[in-house]
Specification:
Layout: H1 19-22, H2 37-54, E1 58-60, E2 65-67, H3 74-90, H4 107-110, H5 114-120, H6 130-135, H7 152-166, H8 173-177, H9 182-188, H10 214-233, H11 238-257, H12 263-280, H13 284-296, H14 299-307, H15 314-325, H16 327-335
Antiparallel strand pairs: 1-2
Helix pairs in contact: 7-10, 10-11, 10-12, 10-13, 11-13, 12-13, 12-15, 15-16
Amino acid sequence: MKNLVSSMDDVLPYARLSEQHAEMQSDKPMQDWGLGITAYQSFFEEQMELFRLFFWPEFDEGKRLWVGKSQEFALSATKTEIDIMLEEFQRTDSLSAKPSGIKTTNLVLAGLDQRWHYRVEDGFHDEDNAFVSAASVSSGANIACYSDTIDPVTFSHAFSAATTRKAVGLFDFKPRLRRPRPYQMAAWLGYHDFKYEVASTHNHKGFHPSFISGHCVLGILRGCSIFESWLNIGGFSKAEFEALGRFMVDYGDRRVLGGVHYPSDSVGSWVLSMKLIDKIFDHKEETKEFASNAIRKGQVYNVVKKRFEGKPGLEAQFDLLESLLAPEQRAEERTA
């Protein structure tokens, strides 16, 4: 297949949002943002500048060009990421593997692979038997595969309810940056063996710009919301907190395994999530530590840690993330 792009001038932005997706935009912050609309708008623009600098340029519709320092490395970094995705996830068929955090003793649920979870997290309801039906009835109910003691109904309700409180408005980054999806860039760059999977034949959400990863940032912020509520309630075990951490990171990781997000979409989403914890959570330090530990155990994070080193643009993204996940450790490394 012929390579159709040789510079960022050749890269087309993701198409304008459909009417349905445009309705997901919001000019208001999440409910738990208590600093006022002006402060939120300033925060949003600061993150936009950070993203333009480290991750992906913004598309200027009037000038019909990409704007931001990241345009200098965006194309080469994207090629590197597609190579990484092929080597680490697609050629190893990662979606057919079972999530590493599965702790249920139910043999039916324990046997479900990443592909099943990927589909459920996009709205697929599996009615094959009573066990899988209960674990796929709504977003978050598949926590049943991670723990025998977390009630999936209560959890899924809390997981969904946390969106309005913690994540409204974050979709607004997508139409500003308009990053093409990995499968689009792979086709333009001549990769004939790159694949992506539609999570559900009835309801696939990955038809809008790639950056940031909605599932990734929602997984972290929703999960941290539940973490904070569990701290307040008390009585939850170490194993249950571990299951929560695994699940909330896997929720975003599976989008990379499915070929609909780049690893750097997750890195940027983790950066944003860590910054938001300081703004919209009460137990800030405990929540940041919980999120940091969970992210660092994830599959995509560990691939990024291994494969982004020494890569133009990508290494700086990982360094930025690490400065937020473990600021004291990072400072010690730089002075050593």
